[in-house]
Amino acid sequence: MPDPSPLQHHTLTPTTLNAEVRAALERGFPLFWIEGEVSNFLKAKSGHLYFSLKDAGAQVRCAMWRPRAMLLRFVPTDGQQVLARARMTLYEPRGEFQLQIEHLEPAGQGALQRAFDELKTRLALEGLFDSGRKRALPVFPQRIAIVSSASGAAIRDIVSVLARRFPLLEADLFPSLVQGAEAPAQLRVQLDRIAALRRHDLVLVTRGGGSIEDLFAFNDEALARRIASMPMPVVSAVGHEVDFTIADFVADLRAPTPSAAAELIAPSADALRDRLAALERRLGRSLSHRLDRDGQRADRLQLRLQARHPLTRFNALGDRLRASHARLIRLPAPLITQRRQRLEQLHLRLQRAAALERIALLVRRADDARQRLQATCVRGIQHQATHLAGLARSLNALSPLATLERGYAIVFDANGHVIQSIEQVESGDALRIRVRHGEFRARAEAKIQSG
Questions:
Q1: pLDDT for position 248
Q2: DSSP 91
């Protein structure tokens, strides 16, 4: 049998009963979403909100505490359809069942927000929001394309900022609806036109502020993929600074407002003029410094050229010659004779040293020649020895003695002639037979004809 309920173990009081019921409700019902119509709305001085949510068949009391109520971006009103994220509880002092509201938003807005969150998560997983695929904007764009409403305040703000910052920048407007069911398709068509033209350095997709329903055209999946595939960078400036759309996440750059987008796209003419003026001053200082430096270098080169001029060198040599002649004239005759003799001795010593150097050079050359000749002779002797050894081996192979060494014999007749044929021998002839270690005598008895 199942265990009895713990409430059966003791007698309850209203306080303990309500406490047990509250605990059971909060355990059994985690956070959930509920949609209904606001009724009997009341905002207390404490900041808490009290109201009921009802439909055609029932209603339930709700409370939203001040910390959560302060986060609301709208003020609920009776009769308004809302979507709430709630927790079930019990107000113990009165024993009243109620919902504790954690989050509240208009019912239509909640559905749009969920669709926005789902699409954002899916495209993020595909990598369409990755920073690695974001392209940098051109520093000095020449022509930009603006996709926006032709009658909205956003385009007027953009034109004003562009004219103030950089009048030379050309901007082409591609008008489109920016809200409503047909807006996403028109926005895509204009982006297709811009991509086909390939005349623009970047694209600005923009509109002014509005509700989440007004901006929802820029949360279209097909539009997001078209922005991601554009051949040039895309800037998204949709709504106010607190508004975010899928187009903002997939674009190469998100600007908080249309005016801020124009500020980011167009370079500042005033800043450029200041920068050009600063560069002009730097260039002037650099040229002045360069001219001074080159002038000093030219002066030094001129002085060096004058010093190396043939006439200058000739005059300097003439001055030295005249000074030397003057010193020679002032020297006494014995000192001149002594120095002349010393000079002749030095000259002879130099001649002897040069002769010894030539003799040493000849000796070194002769020694080198001797070494080369000796090496040539050694190589020649080695070559002749090798050749002689080869001839000796050949001669030994043809020598009769080599035949005797292999066990054969040589037969001679009485006159010492080698017998080469049986026709040279008759019965009874005296023979001399030469073998390996000597010879012996024999006599022929009978002829035996071979074969």
A1: 93
A2: E
Residue 68 located in a structural domain: yes
CATH number for the domain spanning 259: value is 3.40.50.2300
Interior/surface letters 352-363, b for 16+ CB within 10 angstroms, e for the rest: eeeeeeeeeeee
Bridge partners for 427 per DSSP: none
The per-residue pLDDT for 227 is: 95
- Token digits of residue 205: 């997709």
Parallel, antiparallel, or unpaired for β 96-106 and 59-64?
A: parallel
Cα–Cα distance for residue pair 166/38, rounded to 1 Å: 53
pTM beyond 0.85: no
Say whether both 106 and 138 belong to one domain: no
Can you tell me the distance from the alpha carbon of 222 to that of 230, in angstroms, rounded to the nearest whole number? 13
Residue with tokens 């007027």: 156
Q: Which of 326, 404, 277 is nearest to 285 (CA)?
A: 277
C-alpha distance from residue 385 to each of 92, 187, 203, 379, 393 (Å): 131, 105, 97, 10, 12
Higher pLDDT, 192 or 80: 192
pLDDT bucket at 1, cuts 50 / 70 / 90: very low
At 96-117, the pLDDT tens digits run 889 999 998 887 666 677 778 8
| 436 belongs to a structural domain | yes
Residues 14, 136, single domain; the answer is no
Residue 362, domain member (yes or no): no
**β-sheet bridge partners, residue 36:** 82
Domain count, the chain: 3
Return the structure tokens found at 51.
């109201």
Residue 451: Cβ within 10 Å count: 2
Beta bridge partners of 101: 86
Q: Let me know whether 160 and 59 are in one domain.
A: no
Does 227 share its domain with 102?
Answer: no
Angle between helices 221-228 and 107-126 (to 10 degrees): 30
**Assigned domain for 166 exists:** yes
- Domain with 438 in it: 404-443
* Edge-to-edge order in the sheet of strand 438-443: 410-412, 430-435, 438-443
CA distance linking residue 108 with residue 10, whole number of Å: 49
Kindly report the backbone phi and psi dihedral angles of residue 117, in degrees, each rounded to the nearest multiple of 5, phi listed first: -65, -40
